[in-house]
């Protein structure tokens, strides 16, 4: 039996950021099913901090997180967590009213510049303008291109420095709430009947992996991303109704001889297309949200072709060759808001789920929220209350 004060299922950005924060207060163990952290979502994200997505709650959480990326705590990392990259949102003539609406929504969170065709081309000379093209845009000159690897490894580093443990290749097979030392709540499953004699302490959550290792703790944090509802079912709890959605990204060459380093992150005002420079090439996504099962997401040819088609529609670029393609999971709660809080029906079971497409850019404040609710530290954000994030909102 591997005992901890806090056991976290999920080694993506949600679980690891919570682990690094909580490891200052308690013994924390993180179980990650894959051999690498951030495998399904965090490591496959476009990783931009910007305000042109989500709603006021998401934007408030993003704004509250920004300071950590700019000034991480001492010893967290030896490399920058990101670099400044302008964000350009552009619109055709028939989309200008939507652009104005977006400007009003973002204005409380970021300083914006309104530009016309000449300004669009100055920032990104390949955008199609004029008749049938974009005529107006919004620019946030203070966007941040985040480094997910540096962020994930910084949290692992902090966790280990505080004597916490990350266990990879630890796929959860069963979960039980113990009612007495070495006993069960209810009848033991066949899976548990074959396990040895040493069992979890009374009141603890006991987790068994598929290779028959046992872990236990009084607090179990469900940060399993697309698998969070599955983890809840294993614990005999009601699922939230999380929806994993697949998003596709391609990389391709920019114009021959062009210096792409100063280009912005570019997004259509509708959720149709974004693209940005990536290691001397460009990456692009059709912003697809394809319902899928919790799985190792793979790109479909239709969405790959759609990304190339939309690039050629909205820019002067021609996608001659796709160098790489991948897909990742973005998992949303039914109201598309993030979830953090104890399950109202089970003592010690904590939900940290539903990050959607906002997990990286909101992770610092969501870790502080989790720290507040579990360790009793001060609440980190005035404009979002605990009840707005609580899983109890789905049982009302």
CATH architecture of the largest domain: 3-Layer(bba) Sandwich
Q: What is the rounded distance between the termini?
A: 37 Å
Structural class: alpha/beta
CATH class designation of the largest domain: Alpha Beta
How many beta-strand segments? 22
Name some characteristics of this structure.
single chain, 396 residues, alpha/beta, FAD/NAD(P)-binding domain, D-Amino Acid Oxidase, Chain A, domain 2, nine-stranded mixed sheet
What is the gist of this entry?
The chain is α/β, with parallel strands linked by helices and 396 residues long. It has helices at 13-22, 56-70, 96-106, 117-123, 148-161, 190-193, 228-234, 301-314, 359-375, 386-389; strands at 2-3, 6-9, 28-31, 48-49, 82-84, 87-92, 113-116, 134-140, 144-146, 165-167, 172-177, 205-209, 214-217, 219-222, 243-252, 265-268, 274-278, 281-285, 290-291, 322-332, 339-342, 349-353.
Structure description:
About 25% of the residues lie in helices and about 25% in strands. The protein is of the alpha/beta class. The chain folds into 2 domains: about 1-45 and about 150-240 and about 335-395, FAD/NAD(P)-binding domain (3-Layer(bba) Sandwich), CATH 3.50.50; about 85-140 and about 245-330, D-Amino Acid Oxidase, subunit A, domain 2 (D-Amino Acid Oxidase, Chain A, domain 2, 2-Layer Sandwich), CATH 3.30.9. Strands 6, 7, 8, 15, 16, 17, 18, 19 and 20 form a 9-stranded mixed sheet that branches. A hairpin with a 4-residue loop joins strand 12 (about 205-210) and strand 13. The radius of gyration is 22 Å and the shape is elongated. Residues about 185-195 have low confidence and may be disordered.
